[in-house]
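Before a colleague's protein record goes any further, I have to sign it off. Would you go through it and say whether the fold makes sense for this chain? Take the sequence as given and treat only the tokens as open to question. The record follows directly below this note.
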Amino acid sequence: MAALAALIFEVDGTLAETERDGHRVAFKRAFSDAGLDWHRDETEYGRLPAVIGGEERMAHGWAWRDPAPGRPRPTRPSASRTCTSARPASARRWWKPVRSACVTGVERLLRDARSAGVRLAIATTTTPANVESLLHHTPGPSALFWFECIGAGDIAPRKKPAPGIYRHVLAQMSLEPSDCVAIEDSEPGFAAAQAAGIPSLVTRGHHTPAGGFEGAMAVLDGLGKGDRHAAGLALGRPSRGNVDAGTLAAWHHAATRSSPTADNAVPTG
């Protein structure tokens, strides 16, 4: 039974509320600059985070939207090319909307984990440039050096829910899956962590589905800060409070004591 050695974070929705306040706004501005009226409100955008990858998500959403009268429906290839060309412009704007959108309690947890000697890593399909921008602006430039390994972008050949990005991070840090806790906010991300054999904490964001996440170590509405306590289920029981390194270590101990070993994880990519 391993002690908790590392926390591995997804970025979008776990370090900051980047889906609603970042990517959606940045792409809207980039498309507007390109003379396109491909805008999504929060409800419409909320259907897209299950599609992993920024360009893939935008192409999926806009390739099949109802066109304006007299305008031909965009084909998937042309929508993909447009999203690819808009991606650099959106990245330049991406950090501004999320500058104050750090998930409640995440900076507190990061600092507490470092003080407790728990290593930090990132496993995401978000581009390295987006990760660097987010860390630089929330919580600050020094955060770039808090994470021992940043697995981002196309390092893994297949995106989540395939577990390749998690396996890359584990290999880089010479860790076993049972040494870690993954912090995710989406079904594909949770599935990737599960397939890699890593116990998982799910923090629900604005676009996280209400159900699912069977087998998660905990499913909460955040991490908590001050009197803004996180609430949900931990180890199958109601939980309310602020998540710190000690709490995660206790949950991890209980989860790894009662769960199959990482060797039994499903090798799906």
About this structure: The longest helix spans residues 76-98. Confidence is low (pLDDT under 50) at residues 66-77, 86-95, 261-269. The beta strands are 6-9, 119-123, 149-151, 180-184, 200-203, 218-220, 230-234, 237-241. Residues 108 and 241 are 13 Å apart (CA to CA).
